[in-house]
């Protein structure tokens, strides 16, 4: 019996030793992996590092591991990082990163006009995410000369937002969370597009600043918002991303609707002030028919998941224009339907 007891004790000791070596006893000795941050969605594969990815500047960026210390160089990217499930990995954010609330407590590293390079280096990031339209090429090269890894993103259409979410998920090792958010976004976008994109066309002037008059061309995300809502951007073919237009240009375009995303120092009074400013263009159809609307810039100018909130508002506003057309058609025998 003594020999049997000794054999059993030896087998038990070997079992415990094997269990500890496998890392299953509490998991304390197991190295961190991407799965610690998010469970992959069905059909989603985790990246295998090292991995080389191409950013929206067409540059090849090599990642040796999932990013653990991330700095965002624009507010819209800050939002996307949180939406992709990687908010806890942010160690620095661009000034004006005000959403979600958790972003407000993360160290500020400056903005597009003045980056605090010393602070950026001190934060020891293993990845900086930049906005293509918001950062000059020289700034990115300066960061790279400091030995930092920079990945540039850009959303031109609403469909680009889920692509950016998935990209950030791969870079940060949070693919599961990013995939879930991306799919929810895509489903909501499809519903909006099905409801509005084939409605009667409404010509739209998007006002992003009023002194001077500034708008967007068809390479800007806002132009795609207008398209999804069944509208047409009257300055879509301008050569500049955010062209300055003259009063004469605006009068010649004569849009059915004007959507302002101008935000003044006194936020509450901005819609009324801009509306009063536009009354000098009383010949415009949009002004004459009171088709002047406002959408907060955070909901229409930022390349984030919240742009769907702004899109719904724009769609509702263009529906008002269509409803007023019906009333005019019923009350005015000489009313002519605008061309498609």
TrEMBL record:
The keyword Signal applies. Residues 25-44 are annotated as: Disordered. Pfam families: Peripla_BP_2. InterPro entries: ABC_Transporter_SBP, ABC_transptr_periplasmic_BD, Vit_B12_bind_prot. GO terms for biological process: cellular response to iron ion. Residues 1-20 form the signal peptide. Keywords: Signal. Residues 69-326 form the Fe/B12 periplasmic-binding domain. NCBIfam families: TroA_like. This is Iron complex transport system substrate-binding protein. It comes from Nitrosospira multiformis. The lineage of its organism: Bacteria, Pseudomonadati, Pseudomonadota, Betaproteobacteria, Nitrosomonadales.
């Amino acid at each position: 019996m003594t020999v049997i007891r000794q054999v059993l004790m030896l087998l038990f000791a070997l079992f415990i030793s094997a269990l500890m070596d496998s890392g299953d006893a509490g998991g304390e000795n197991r190295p961190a992996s991407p799965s610690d941050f998010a469970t992959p969605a069905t059909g989603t594969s985790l990246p295998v590092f090292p991995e080389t990815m191409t950013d929206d500047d067409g540059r090849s960026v090599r990642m040796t591991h999932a990013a653990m210390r991330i700095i965002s160089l624009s507010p819209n990217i800050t939002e996307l990082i949180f939406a992709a499930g990687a908010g806890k990995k942010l160690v620095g954010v661009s000034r004006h990163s005000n959403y979600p609330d958790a972003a407000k407590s993360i160290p500020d590293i400056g903005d597009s006009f003045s980056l605090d390079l010393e602070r950026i280096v001190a934060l020891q990031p293993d990845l900086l995410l930049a906005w293509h339209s918001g950062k000059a090429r020289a700034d990115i090269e300066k960061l790279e000369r400091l030995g930092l890894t920079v990945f540039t993103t850009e959303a031109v259409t609403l469909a680009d937002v889920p692509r950016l979410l998935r990209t950030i998920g791969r870079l940060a090792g949070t693919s599961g969370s990013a995939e879930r958010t991306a799919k929810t976004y895509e489903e909501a976008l499809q519903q909006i597009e099905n409801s509005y994109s084939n409605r009667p066309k409404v010509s739209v002037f998007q006002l992003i600043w009023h002194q001077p008059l500034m708008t967007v061309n068809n390479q800007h995300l806002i132009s795609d918002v207008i398209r999804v809502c069944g509208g047409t951007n009257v300055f879509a073919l301008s050569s500049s991303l955010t062209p300055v237009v003259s009063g004469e240009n605006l009068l010649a375009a004569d849009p059915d609707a004007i959507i302002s995303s101008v935000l003044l120092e006194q936020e509450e009074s901005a819609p009324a002030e801009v509306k009063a400013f536009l009354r000098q263009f009383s010949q415009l159809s949009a002004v004459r028919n009171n088709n002047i609307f406002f959408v907060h810039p955070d909901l229409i100018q930022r390349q984030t998941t919240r742009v769907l909130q702004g899109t719904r508002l724009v769609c509702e506003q263009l529906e008002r224009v269509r409803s007023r057309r019906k009333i005019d058609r019923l009350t005015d025998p000489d009313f002519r339907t605008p061309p498609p």
